[in-house]
Amino acid sequence: MHEMSITMSLLDTIRAEMEKAALKELRSVRIRVGELTAVEPEALRFCFEASIKGTPFEGAALEIEEAPLRGRCKDCGNVFRIIKFERTCPGCGCSSVEMAGGNELDIVSMEGV
Ligand SMILES: [Zn+2]
């Protein structure tokens, strides 16, 4: 399952960050998930909760921010939301557009003791 492998790499990152910050227990973690990753937030939450049972992370809350797919117009610099892969700048109407977000999978913040 897509979300399970994402959860595993997420937990690896969290573990490394906690070591760096000398945290023993995780209270909550907030992540940002781009639209292009095709992650189902509810499926991710389910995998996360199943994976942390019996670990030092048990009971930690997972907060998920969804980041929409965005494009940036190379001509006028307009940043806009891309819907249904329509890559035309609503500002100037050109189609010279590059991706400006939507494939991120980042840890925004975490809290622990
Ligand atoms: Zn434009």
Plain-language structure description:
The mean pLDDT is 94. Helix content is 28%, strand content 32%. The two termini are 31 Å apart. Helix 1 (2-21) packs across helix 2 (41-52). It is built from two helices and six strands, in the order H-E-H-E-E-E-E-E. With 113 residues, the chain is α+β, with helices and mostly antiparallel strands. The strands form two sheets. Strands 2-1-6 form a three-stranded mixed β-sheet, with helices on one face. It has a three-stranded antiparallel β-sheet with strand order 4-3-5, with no helix packed on it. The protein has one domain (2-69, 101-112): hypothetical protein PF0899 fold (2-Layer Sandwich). It has helices at 2-21, 41-52, and strands spanning 26-34, 61-67, 70-73, 79-81, 97-101, 105-112. Zinc ion binds at residues 73, 75-76, 78, 89, 91-92, 94.
User: What letter string, H or E per element, gives the SSE order?
Assistant: HEHEEEEE
Low-confidence stretches: none
Bound molecules: zinc ion
CATH topology: hypothetical protein PF0899 fold
C-alpha termini separation? 31 Å
β-strand number: 6
Largest sheet: 3 strands, mixed
This entry's quaternary arrangement is: single chain
Helix count, per DSSP? Answer: 2
Q: How helix-rich are the residues, as a percent range? A: 25-40%
Strand order of the largest sheet: 2-1-6
Number of domains: 1
Q: Give the overall shape.
A: elongated
Tell me what the CATH architecture is. 2-Layer Sandwich
Mean pLDDT: 94
Structural class: alpha+beta
